[in-house]
């Protein structure tokens, strides 16, 4: 008789080929069997009869601020937030203090994960004008998900804004590069039009559609010229989404949960707690983002979890910090969008698991299939729950989604065969590891 370490029994499993009610057998941290396992035994069993079983969901865009200010976030608190929110992996951005831009800091960060991360972690390397020549080697280091380029300035000191430097970055290495795409020249040129204390909604006037579209056009011209694949992070305008349709040879697309959920009314309601880069815009752009989810333009949905202190968020615009928390709330909010009929659970698994796996070249994750990591996000689509600030474990302590009632909630998360989160509690100790990537196996 077959025996497993763990069997998930009778869940509605979101498989790559459709949703099927079936059993999943886990051995040594990986999926060993999919199918009818009534005759099999296991050391541990989970009754999934009222749950959907998704492949472990990934947030490919988080800023865990470590090293940085522990009063705002740490790797440990940010990954705990991820796990409580139903994620099993996050990819962590490099604009920390100091930034992750060289081998030494990358090695430090990889070692630092052990015993601190509650979910698996991929590491971005930041591009700066000083490390362009080293990027080709840095992107091959273990656990590196991608090089991140800030082509427009945001939080931190990373910036590569001119075409000559951007082209040099594209010619250093060969993996897909991730871009923050806002045209820095237009940003700086228009900044003097705005003064301290103006209403927060000016954020989307300053960092306007043209700013984003111009940035993306410049990057696409260079990507075609160099043949270097690009991933445009947080695409926020209808215009870019229409434009990128024709660039699928060199470009993949991320859209944020925020741009699928919030519109400009948020500036009046939340003030500084609605300010992020690129900005939240009007309904036309939200509608375009959903159309792009439906037609397949969007490859990945992420949170851009970007915690800041309350003091930094409450300064008058534009002196405050840009960025919103989201790693703990992205799964409940996406499930709520599923409940509202805006996408299917299969598309959610595509956008938050198979999509990131494909775009970044993840090894062993991305689908419910034999041989893959036994990472599962188990969700209860009947559960209704309101997001409350008291639930947020990031030390900064706030969410722009407080009071949002969700239909659908993550009930459990399994990380490489271990139940790591169940009904609002993390279990055991932090056992997250570095995520493996096809083209990043070190030398
Ligand atoms: O709003 C943002 N905040 N956008 C970014 O690109 C960076 C992020 C941060 O690190 O605060």
UniProtKB/TrEMBL annotation:
Domain Amidohydrolase-related intervals = 53-419
Q: Name one GO molecular function term.
A: dihydroorotase activity
Report the EC code(s) recorded for this entry: 3.5.2.3
- Keyword set, alphabetical order: Hydrolase, Metal-binding
Look up the signal peptide feature and give its range: none
Cofactor(s), names only, from the UniProt record: Zn(2+)
Q: What does this protein do?
A: Catalyzes the reversible cyclization of carbamoyl aspartate to dihydroorotate.
> Which family is it part of?
Belongs to the metallo-dependent hydrolases superfamily. DHOase family. Class I DHOase subfamily.
This chain belongs to which protein, by name?
Dihydroorotase
**Species for this entry:** Paracraurococcus ruber
């Amino acid at each position: 008789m077959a025996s497993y370490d763990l069997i998930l029994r009778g869940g509605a499993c979101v498989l790559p080929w459709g949703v099927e009610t079936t059993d999943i057998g886990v051995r040594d941290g990986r999926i060993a069997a999919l199918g009818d396992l009534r005759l099999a035994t296991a050391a541990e069993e989970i009754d999934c009869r009222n749950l959907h079983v998704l492949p472990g969901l990934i947030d490919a865009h988080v800023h865990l601020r470590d090293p940085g200010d522990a009063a705002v976030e740490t790797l440990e608190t940010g990954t705990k937030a991820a796990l409580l929110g139903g994620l099993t992996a996050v990819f962590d951005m490099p604009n920390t203090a100091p930034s992750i831009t060289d081998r030494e800091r990358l090695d430090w960060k990889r070692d630092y994960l052990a015993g601190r991360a509650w979910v698996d972690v991929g590491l971005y390397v930041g591009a700066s004008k000083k490390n362009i020549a080293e990027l080709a080697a840095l992107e091959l280091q273990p656990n590196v998900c991608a090089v991140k380029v800030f082509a427009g300035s945001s939080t931190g000191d990373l910036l590569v804004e001119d075409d000559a430097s951007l082209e040099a970055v594209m010619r250093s290495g060969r993996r897909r590069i991730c871009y923050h795409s806002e045209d820095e020249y237009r940003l700086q040129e228009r900044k003097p039009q705005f003064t301290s204390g103006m209403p927060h909604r000016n954020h989307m006037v300053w960092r306007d559609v043209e700013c984003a579209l111009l940035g993306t056009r410049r990057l696409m011209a260079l990507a075609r010229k160099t043949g270097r694949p690009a991933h445009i992070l947080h695409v926020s305008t209808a215009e870019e989404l229409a434009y990128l349709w024709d660039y699928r040879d060199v470009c993949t697309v991320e859209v944020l949960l925020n741009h699928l959920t919030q519109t400009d009314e948020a500036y009046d309601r939340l003030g500084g707690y609605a300010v992020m880069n690129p900005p939240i815009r009007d309904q036309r752009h939200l509608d375009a983002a959903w159309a792009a989810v439906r037609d397949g333009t969007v490859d990945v949905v992420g949170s851009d979890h970007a915690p800041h202190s309350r003091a930094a968020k409450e300064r008058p615009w534009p002196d405050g910090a840009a960025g919103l928390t989201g790693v703990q709330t992205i799964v409940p909010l996406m499930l709520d969008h599923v409940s509202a009929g805006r996408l299917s659970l299969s598309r959610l698994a595509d956008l938050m698991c198979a999509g990131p796996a494909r775009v970044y070249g993840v090894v062993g994750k991305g689908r419910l299939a034999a041989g893959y990591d036994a990472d599962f996000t188990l969700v209860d689509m009947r559960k209704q729950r309101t997001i409350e600030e008291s639930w947020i474990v990031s030390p900064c302590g706030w969410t722009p989604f407080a009071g949002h009632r969700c239909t659908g909630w993550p009930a459990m998360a399994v990380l490489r065969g271990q139940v790591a989160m169940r009904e609002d509690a993390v279990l055991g100790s932090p056992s997250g590891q570095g995520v493996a990537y096809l083209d990043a196996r070190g030398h």
